[in-house]
Write a structure and sequence with these properties.
This is Phosphoacetylglucosamine mutase. The chain is an alpha/beta fold. The chain contains 18 helices and 20 strands. The chain folds into 4 domains: about 160 residues, Alpha-D-Glucose-1,6-Bisphosphate, subunit A, domain 3 (Alpha-D-Glucose-1,6-Bisphosphate, Chain A, domain 3, 3-Layer(aba) Sandwich), CATH 3.40.120.10; about 110 residues, 3-Layer(aba) Sandwich (Alpha-D-Glucose-1,6-Bisphosphate, Chain A, domain 3); about 130 residues, no CATH class; about 90 residues, TATA-Binding Protein (2-Layer Sandwich). The strands form 5 sheets. The chain has a 5-stranded mixed sheet, sandwiched between helices. Strands 7-6-8-9-10 form a 5-stranded mixed sheet, sandwiched between helices. A 4-stranded mixed sheet has the order 12-11-13-14, sandwiched between helices. Strand 8 and strand 9 form a beta hairpin. The longest helix is centred in the middle third of the chain and has 20 residues. Bound molecules: 2-acetamido-2-deoxy-1-O-phosphono-alpha-D-glucopyranose and magnesium ion (MG). Magnesium ion binds next to loops.
Length: about 550
């Protein structure tokens, strides 16, 4: 590393001293903490992003968001050239970099990484980083810190894209590296035109959302609400109303948003008994999660939740149907056949009833630890891989080889049987692959796909919800002295430490019919999470409470709270 580069790094890093006595770690989705202590971390992530871009000789992204967390929190994560999460191999380096106490240690860690990773670091190669942030008030100054980090690497360029949803930034990084247009209008154009294609391909052609039967969306008072209003202007018959759009002064994620709705199973602010029977949906604070819900007639605040597992089931059913049409009878004559391997990926938080349902459909179901980075990696191993977290974060990945086969098959069918059911099925799958975000779970594109499939099936939200009945479940958070004392294995379903806790959980679980329970340390909050399922709600609640007490006993003081 040249002398000028080293002194530039020493000088600029001295402007961003790390907070004393704080250790941050690159958790489930990057660094997250109270925004007031994040400047130094974000500055250093700027440096890291520039190094990653040099290493991969591609465009990378930096997103400043704390998603569903409270408005005073913020966070930062890197988007890899593929549009996915930062390669997990680089996470330890991110931790070291962010926790280095002095500019000199920081410099020596950078030097080590440059050497180990053989990063072309001569100031000749250039790095390019796309920057985005959500609507948090702290976002602007944190974004400036990221720019400082980037510009402390010679030849690195930062492109500030302003306020974006997290999936928009992922989509743009993916698009840029594929040589496609990576702008917000290009994003909206792609998702809205592929949505229109799906609608045009609805059997018998005619169904369009009746005006009084359009979805009502809770925007979590965040960036998703703002962007959905843009989409509403492009697809005028899509959404009935966007509430909590962030424009009317409501506080981000405060009694609103997908996380609140999914975990508390109550209506978000601004919804109530007037909404009985309507199809409602909720985005999270950075619009990478989506859940649906309806308000039952006997209640003003309780909801019937349609979560990520149900979305996964709906998508799986639709894709499977299209694949069946494409490969049935008349098709066998074609020399151009392909047995597409369709698989689904879930985490331990998936409702047990959803897993049973997916297996009944004949699908291969794989489990990974929590966090999209794990699910995405597994889903990418299928020709078509669908992954969802129960909280509504997920997408459908199509392999390059399947897509090229599909394009060729579609062209072949267009010649021999244009407009046939087979060709329509091919076109539907092609449209889904363009509509659904190939980089990461995306609430806006998932909303469009759900809306298109419900119209295709001519299903109400109730009919969709009846695909299977969720097993009653309960989630709790327990504050403990040191959550890292909990170490898990088997896709987080078994706690290896502290010793004896798993046996105690098993003994408790065995008391409940259809009981299932696990604990794990959160990667985004300073808590241990408890998840319990049982055949009744009382059972699930009581199992979760007993296990929360065990966590308290084994891990030291803290109060358990929902
Ligand atoms: C139970 C739960 O919902 N956990 C969420 C939450 O992670 P934790 O590590 O559980 O805090 O935030 C992650 C990032 O948004 C998301 O991927 C994950 O599913
Ligand atoms: Mg989110």
């Amino acid at each position: 590393m040249k002398e000028e580069q080293s002194s530039l790094l020493l000088k600029s890093s001295s402007l961003f001293p790390p907070p004393q006595g704080v250790k941050l770690s690159y958790g489930t989705a990057g660094f997250r903490a109270d925004a007031s202590i994040l400047k130094s971390a974000v500055y250093r992530v700027g440096i890291l992003a520039a190094l990653r871009s040099l290493k991969t000789q591609s465009v990378v992204g930096v997103m400043i968001t704390a998603s569903h967390n409270k408005v005073t929190d913020n966070g930062v994560k890197i988007v890899d050239p593929s549009g996915g999460m930062l390669s997990q191999e680089w996470e330890p380096f991110a931790d070291q970099l962010v926790n280095a106490q002095t500019p000199e240690t920081l410099l020596s860690i950078i030097r080590e990484c440059v050497e180990k990773e053989k990063i072309p670091f001569d100031g000749v190669q250039s790095a390019e980083i796309l920057l985005g942030r959500d609507t948090r008030p702290s976002g602007e100054s944190l974004l400036e810190a990221a720019k400082h980090g980037i510009s402390s690497i010679f030849g690195a360029i930062a492109l500030d894209l302003g306020i974006l949803t997290t999936p928009q930034l992922h989509w743009m990084v993916h698009a840029r590296n594929k040589g496609m247009k990576a702008t917000e209008p290009a994003y909206f154009e792609q998702i809205s035109s592929s949505f229109r294609c799906l609608i045009d391909l609805i059997p018998n052609g005619t169904k369009v959302n009746k005006l009084d039967n359009r979805v009502v969306v809770d925007g979590a008072d965040g960036v998703g609400g703002e962007k959905l209003l843009v989409l509403k202007n492009i697809l005028t018959d899509l959404v009935n109303e966007v509430r909590n759009s962030g424009k009317d002064g409501g506080l981000l994620n405060d009694g609103v948003g997908a996380d609140y709705v999914q975990k508390e199973k109550v209506v978000p602010r601004g919804f109530g008994s007037n909404d009985v029977g309507k199809r409602c949906a909720s985005l999270d604070g950075d619009a990478d999660r989506l859940v649906y819900f309806s308000v039952p007639s006997n209640s003003s605040s309780k909801i019937d939740l349609v979560d990520g597992d149900k979305m996964l089931s709906l998508f799986a059913l639709f894709i499977k149907e299209q694949l069946n049409i494409l490969t049935r009878e008349g098709n066998k004559k074609s020399n151009n056949n392909f047995q597409a391997h369709l698989g689904v990926v879930q985490t331990a938080y998936a409702n047990g009833a959803s897993t049973d349902y997916l297996k009944q459909l004949g699908l291969e179901v794989i489990f990974t630890p929590t966090g999209v980075k794990h699910l995405h990696e597994k889903a990418a191993q299928f020709d078509i891989g669908i992954y969802f977290e129960a909280n509504g974060h997920g997408t459908i990945l199509f392999s390059e080889s399947f897509l090229s086969w599909l394009e060729a098959r579609n062209n072949e069918l267009a010649l021999v049987s244009e407009g046939s059911e087979q060709q329509k099925a091919a076109l539907r799958l092609l449209s889904v692959s363009k509509l659904i975000n190939q980089a990461v779970g995306d609430a806006l594109s998932c909303l469009l796909l759900v809306e298109a499939i419900l119209q295709h099936m001519d299903w109400s939200i109730h009919k969709w919800n009846e695909l299977y009945q969720d097993l009653p479940s309960r989630q709790l958070k327990v504050k403990v002295v040191d959550r890292t004392a909990v170490v898990t294995t088997n896709a987080e379903t078994v706690a290896v430490t502290p010793p004896g806790i798993q046996e105690a959980i098993d003994a408790e679980t065995a008391k409940y019919p259809r009981g299932r329970c696990f604990i794990r340390p959160s990667g985004t909050e300073d808590v241990v999470r408890v998840y319990a399922e049982a055949s009744t709600q009382e059972g699930a609640d009581s199992l979760a409470n007993s296990v929360a007490k065990l966590v308290d006993q084994f891990l030291g003081s803290g109060s358990s709270a929902r």
